[in-house]
Design a protein that fits this description.
By secondary structure, the protein is an alpha/beta fold. The protein folds into two domains: about 100 residues, Leucine Dehydrogenase, chain A, domain 1 (Rossmann fold), CATH 3.40.50.10860; about 130 residues, Rossmann fold. Helices cover about 40% and strands about 15% of the residues. The strands form three sheets. It has a five-stranded parallel sheet. It has a three-stranded parallel sheet with strand order 2-1-3, sandwiched between helices. The protein has a two-stranded antiparallel sheet with strand order 8-9. Strand 8 and strand 9 form a beta hairpin. The radius of gyration is 21 Å and the shape is globular. The protein starts with 5 loop residues before the first helix and ends in a 12-residue tail after the last helix. About 40% of the residues are buried.
Amino acid sequence: MNTVDCKELKAEGLEELKRNLEDKKVSLRIIQVEGDSASDVYVRNKMKAGLEVGLDIQHILLSNDVTNEQILKIIDILNSDDNINGIMVQLPIPKHLDEDLIINSINPEKDVDGLTTTNLGKIVSKEKGLRPCTAEGVMTILDKCIGLNNLEGQNITIIGRSKLVGLPLFHMLLEYNATPTICHTRTKNLKDYTRNADIIVTAAGSEYKFINEDMIKEGAIIIDVSTVRGNNGKLHGDVFYDEVIEKASYVTPVPGGVGQLTVLELMKNTYKAYELQNSKKKKPEKTYIKKISK
C-alpha cells in the first residue's frame, strides 16, 4: 500500500518554509465574514501555521451584515499596500455578497488562494502563477504516492467541478499527460467512471458518504477532499474509509488528510507571492535608445 502521512508532510513543509522565511518579512491578511463555524476552524489552523513559520499574519473578521462595497474598500487598501504580500477571503461568504466580484478585486499577484480569473486562466495556458491551494495539495499527495511523472496515462476520475478543486486540478493533471475526467451532480452512472479509475479525487462535499468498495477497482488511489460535519458532530468525507481501505492502495483520511496540505500550500503561496513581487521590484526598467540615422 502507498502511504502518505499528510500531517507529517505538512510539518516537514512548514519547517522548510520557516527556514526560507528567516530574516524576511512576509505578510498575509485573511478576511473572514463571521457566521460559518467551519470557517472559524479553518482560519484558526491557517493563523497557527502562519505564526509557526514566521509570517506577519493578521485576521480581519467582519460582521455578517457587511456589504460588497465595504469589503472591496478593505481589499483596495490591502492591494495598495506594498508591505502586504498575500490576501485571501475565507469562503464561503454570505449569499448577499458577490463572491466573484470580491475575489476578482484582489490583485492577482497577492491572490494566495489562486482563485482570481487571472490566476485560474494561467493554469489553462500553462503559465506560472498562484494556484488554488487544495488542488496543489492533491498534487503534492499524488507526487508522494506515485510521483507526478508517473501520472502519464493514468485514468483519473474527479468528482466535483468547483474552482477550488475540480476545474484547476483537471488542467494541472493534463500537464503530466494524465487522462482526467470530471464528474458532477448531473453525471449518469458515476460508478462506470470510478470503477475504471486508477485514481479517484472526490470533492463532492456530500451530506452522506457514497463511495464504497463496489465503486472502486483493486489498487486504486483515493483522495478524499471533502470535509462535512455530520449530524453526530463528527467530520466525514465522501468515502467509506474503513470499507475501501482493504481494496485501495491508498486512501486519504478525513480529517487529517488533504486539509493539512491545503494549509501548507497557502503558506507556500504567500512566500511565492512575496518572491514574485520582489523580483519585479529588482528588475531594472528598460531603457530605449533611439537610433538616429545620418
